Amino acid sequence: MNLVLDAIAWILDPTNWEGVGGIPQRLWEHLWISAVILLIAAAIALPVGVLVGHTGRGREAAVTVSGALRALPTLGVLSLFALWLGIGLRAPIPALVILAIPPLLAGAYAGIESIDRRIVDAARAMGMNERQIVGKVEVPLGLPIIVGGIRSATLQIIATATLAAYVADFGLGRFIFSGLKTRDYAEMLGGSILVIVLALVVDGAFALTQRLVVPAGVRATRFTELRSRPARPRAAVG
Amino acid sequence: MIEFRGVTKQFPDGTVAVEGVDIVIPPHKTTVLVGSSGSGKTTLLRMINRMVDPTAGQVLIDGTDVATVEPVALRRGIGYVMQNSGLLPHRKVVDNVATVPLLRGTSKREARAHALELLDTVGLDRSLAEKYPAQLSGGQQQRVGVARGLAVDPNILLMDEPFGAVDPIVRAELQQELLRLQEELGKTVVFVTHDIDEAFLLGDQVVIMQQGGRISQAASPVEILANPADDFVADFVGARRGKRALHVTEVDGQRLVVDADGRPAGVLAS
C-alpha cells in the first residue's frame, strides 16, 4: 500500500512535471507514437479487412495471418527489429504495427460481414457499383464494429508502447525502465499508473465514438422497438 | 418487351435453376412468375437486370441482349422491389427513394422533390419522408420500396415477392394499390410470387414454373383455368380441389356456389 502511495506522490511531485524527460513530455511522446502506429496499422489492415468482408474472399487467409501475428511475442519481435534496425524508434514502430493489425483486420471484416446480405443485394440491384456499395452502405453500417476493432487495437498499442522505451529514449515506458534500473519502485509504479490512466481515458473516448457512429436509422430501430413493441402491433399500422 | 431465348442457368455447384426457358414478356402488362421454392422464378427475374447471368441463351430487352449492356447502367434503368423492402436502414425515407436518381447525377434538390411526389404516388404521407425505415410499419416500408423502384421512371419494374413478408390484410391493400398504380403508369411489371391467388389477381400473363426451372404454362389466368396445360398446372392452380373447384347447388330455390369441400363461396347471380 505504501508503494502505491509513494507512486502517487511521485506522480504528484511537481518536479516530475517539468523539463526534459518530465511527465508531460513522456505523455506526449507516448500518445504521439501510439497515434503513428495506429495510423500505419490502420492504413494496412482496414482496406484489407474491408475488402475481405466485401468479397467474402480471403477470409481464411486473414484469420490465419491474424492468428499468427497475434501469437508473436512483441518483446521478441522488438528485440529482433532492434538488432536489425538499431536503437531508436525504427524498431518499436514495426513491432507494434504487427501487434495492432489483427484486431483492426478482424474489426473491419467482421463489421462488413455483419450487415444483412439482403441490404447489400438490394443496393447492387438498384445500380450501385462495388465502390458505392462499400462506401455508402457497408462501411457506414459496419462502422460501430470497425471502430470497436480500432478501439481494442489502440488499447493494446498504448499498453505495449511502453516497450518502445526498451530500445529508445521515448514514451512513458522510460519511467518504468529507469525505475527498474535504479530500483526506484515509486517511479516505476508511477509510470505504470500513468500508462493505465492514459489507456482508460483513450478507451473511454473510443467508447463514446463507438456510440456516436451507430447510424441514426439503426439507432431508431432500437428506440422504436423499445417503445412501440408492447403498445401497438406494428402490422396493423399498414 | 423482354424476351428469354433458350435461357439456362446452372450454378457452379451443379444446381440447374432454370432450364431452356423461352418466353416473351409483353410491354405495359404485368407478368407474374409463380411457382414453389426452387422453381427458378427469382433466378429468371434476376437475369433481367443481370443480377444473375445465364449460362446459356439470351435475355433481350427491346431486342438488345442484356449481356452487351454494362450491369450497373442496366440496373439503374430498371426498377427493383424486393421482399422486406431492402431499404437502406441508415438513410431517411426520402433519401432511400432518391438513391438511384442521385446515382444517376440528378441534383439533390430535384431528387428529393421528386421523391416526395413519389410518396404521394404510392399513397404515403409526406410526413414520413424524414423518418427512418425502421420507424415505419412493414406495409409502409414496402410502399417506400415501390416508390424507390419507380424513382427513375423505368419502363420495367421487377418485383421479387414484394408482399411476401406483410400480413394478409396489408397484403391485400398493397395488391389493390399496385393494380391502381399499374392502371395509371402502365409499366412492364415482372412479379415473382409463390401465391397463385396473388398471381391470378395481378397478372395479365401468368407463368407457372415447376421444379428444375421449366415453364409449365404461360397464359392469361382465364386461359390457365380453362385449359390447364397439364396435371401439374391443374394441381398447382387448384382447379380440381379446394376453393377453385366450384359447383352450383340449389338450396331453398337459391342457387349457391360451393367449393370442393361443400363450403359456400357465394350466390350465383342471374
Give the N-to-C terminal Cα separation of chain A: 66 Å
Strand order of the largest sheet of chain B: 6-7-8-3-9-10
Task: Give me the count of strands of chain A.
Answer: 0
CATH superfamily caption of one domain in chain B: P-loop containing nucleotide triphosphate hydrolases
The CATH topology of one domain in chain B comes to: Rossmann fold
The low-pLDDT segments of chain B are: none
SSE sequence of chain A, one letter per element: HHHHHHHHHHH
Helices of chain B, by number, come to: 9
| Helical content of chain B (DSSP H or I, runs of 4+) | 25-40%
Oligomer: heterodimer
The CATH class of one domain in chain B, by name, is Alpha Beta
Low-confidence stretches of chain A: 223-238
Determine Rg of chain A (CA atoms, Å): 22 Å
Looking at this protein, list some descriptive labels.
heterodimer, A: 238 residues, mainly alpha, MetI-like fold, 78% helix, elongated, B: Rossmann fold, four-stranded antiparallel sheet, 9 helices, 27% strand
General description of the model:
The model of chain A is unreliable at 223-238 (pLDDT under 50). Chain A is elongated, with a radius of gyration of 22 Å. Chain A is built from eleven helices and no strands. Chain A has one domain (22-226): MetI-like fold (Orthogonal Bundle), CATH 1.10.3720. Helices cover 78% and strands 0% of the residues of chain A. Chain A is mainly α and 238 residues long. With 270 residues, chain B is an alpha/beta fold. Among the domains of chain B are: 1-78 and 180-238, P-loop containing nucleotide triphosphate hydrolases (Rossmann fold, 3-Layer(aba) Sandwich); 240-270, no CATH class. Helix content of chain B is 33%, strand content 27%. Chain B is built from nine helices and 13 strands. Chain B has helices spanning 41-48, 71-76, 93-103, 108-121, 138-150, 168-185, 196-202, 221-226, 231-237, and strands spanning 2-10, 16-25, 30-34, 56-61, 64-65, 79-82, 156-160, 188-193, 205-210, 214-219, 247-251, 254-258, 264-267. In chain B, strands 6-7-8-3-9-10 form a six-stranded mixed sheet, with helices on both faces. Chain B has a four-stranded antiparallel sheet with strand order 2-1-4-5, covered by helices on one side. Chain B is globular and about 65 Å long. The two termini of chain B are 41 Å apart. The model of chain B has no long low-confidence stretch (mean pLDDT 92). Classes of the chains: A mainly alpha (238), B alpha/beta (270). Chain A binds chain B through residues 118-119, 121-129, 132, 136-137, 140-141, 215-218, 220-221, 224-225, 234-238, and chain B through 46, 49, 51, 72-77, 80, 82-84, 86-92, 99-100, 103, 131-135, 137-140, 148, 166-167, 169-170, 173.
